Amino acid sequence: MGKIAFVFSGQGAQKAGMGKDFYENNASVKELFARAEEIRPGTLQQCFEGTAEELKITENTQPCLYLADIAAAIALREEGIVPEAVAGFSLGEIPALAFAGAYSPEDGFRLACARGAAMGKAAKEHPASMVAVMKMENAQVEALAEKYPNVFPVNYNGPGQLVVAGKKDELDSFGKDVKEAGGRCLPVAVGGGFHSPFMDEASQEFAEALKAVDVKQPEMTVYSNYTTKPYTAEVRDLMEKQINHSLRWQESIENMAADGFDTFIEVGVGTTLKKLISRILPDSKVYAVSNMEEARQVAEEVR
């Protein structure tokens, strides 16, 4: 076996009950969740019982998903599995950096709250949606998007899957172009046009929030969505730019593989990243952990 990496789930994976099993069965997680509830009252109710509509609201999604992600990572670490590197998909980069020691878990929660608020505000001011384009080459999707001033390729997820953000009327026309070209569009369960120029103001607002937090060089290698390579000393700068620039997940995972990583464990909610990585690196070992039973089973297998 090569090196192990944790990958932290991103927005769109959220669902009611996330993090609850860790909260009920892990003392460290319960303590962190209690502190988070003091910082943002009502968060645990949203995590454990929120409706799909409530959890789709960016201001709610990001704090809740942050807790679910880091809870799974903490549980795995207490089962004896310590990764050599981490990466996070969009919002997932916030708990990944916290887990890697760039700031405290509590400050990470504060940052998730600030990021969600900033992105939610920008989404209201610049209404947009996101769709995943399937069964087409990236260059084809990019060429179709160029026809529209407000459609942007944003998430380079994996082979045959590129997410675009755009204004609704232009996305509708773009979708027809995709269908005529033999592709398929699927809506993404998020509340705005993330990782695009629609988020420029959110990036600036988040930069201000970062000034209030003690942010340092991570103690563990963290691969950046923005550069696709390990974080440098410019942690704040990369965190800001991640919000309004393309997310290059496939290239990040390929760079991790080139650096010797062949075992990936998705921590948080669902199996979205597990599926993407399995397509990007068919020969890799990929797992997903979203409850204590899975944490114990994966720990046993990886050992």
TrEMBL record:
Its EC number is 2.3.1.39. Signal peptide: none annotated. It catalyses: holo-[ACP] + malonyl-CoA = malonyl-[ACP] + CoA. The keyword Acyltransferase applies. SUPFAM superfamilies: FabD/lysophospholipase-like, Probable ACP-binding domain of malonyl-CoA ACP transacylase. One of its GO terms (molecular function) is [acyl-carrier-protein] S-malonyltransferase activity. The active site is at S90, H195. GO terms for biological process: fatty acid biosynthetic process. It is an enzyme of class 2 (transferase). PANTHER family: MALONYL-COA-ACYL CARRIER PROTEIN TRANSACYLASE, MITOCHONDRIAL. This is Malonyl CoA-acyl carrier protein transacylase. It comes from Anaerotignum lactatifermentans DSM 14214.
